[in-house]
Amino acid sequence: MLAEALNRLVKELTKLPGVGEKTALRRAFHLISLPKSELQALAKSIIEVKERLTLCSICFNLTDDDPCPICRTDRGDSDTICVVETPAHLAAFERTGQFKGCYHVLHGVISPLRNISPDDLKIKELLYRLKEDKIKEIILAMNPTREGEATAIYLANLIKPLGIKVTRIAQGIPRGGEIEYLDDATLRSSLEGRKEL
Ligand SMILES: [Zn+2]
Predict the structure, then answer these.
(1) Considering only CA atoms, which of 115, 114, 84 is closest in space to residue 99?
(2) For residues 3 and 40, what is the distance between their CA atoms, to the nearest angstrom?
(3) Mean of the pLDDT values across residues 94-111?
(4) 96 closest CA partner among 193, 190, 185
(5) What spacing in Å lies between the alpha carbon of 60 and ligand 1's midpoint?
(6) Could you tell me if residue 181 is left (phi over 0), alpha (psi between -120 and 50 degrees) or otherwise beta?
(7) How far apart are the CA of 100 and the centre of ligand 1, in A?
(8) What is the 3-state secondary structure (H, E, C) of 105-134?
């Protein structure tokens, strides 16, 4: 039997994605071995991230400063918007260091099964940006799942009539492969090989 406090920690850690009980126990023992000051810093950063983060009013990425650093900076291709499902996907594309444009985070995909309609996503906000800013290209970078594809087609049908080039990331991504878990090279080539819709 585990000590009560250790049990509680293991239980909390198993709430993280991909962490089963065995991994949680290993992580818990690792945490216990750290000096108290490091644990305090870790706990503080977890609380702070929740308290300080807000959504960027332009791209809806997580930020502690609105507008976010990406929207505030001219990175070279500010007339290109890469549309992603989640802040985690945005972080994955940013990690590749390849993309020099702006992003727009939908916060999900259209899913009749899970009762998520276009109104539940940041689609109105995207269309508003397209009217306000001079945008030349929209890259649809949703996951290659059925729902991701359906959302891409829905958006392409809305955006193409505005005379803006619409592209979809290349399908080098394994079907159903989660963008945030892909290696940088695969993500980079999916951007490079994007095709016009
Ligand atoms: Zn932003």
Answers:
(1) 84
(2) 21
(3) 94
(4) 185
(5) 6
(6) alpha
(7) 13
(8) ECCCCCECCCCECHHHCCHHHHHHHHHHCC
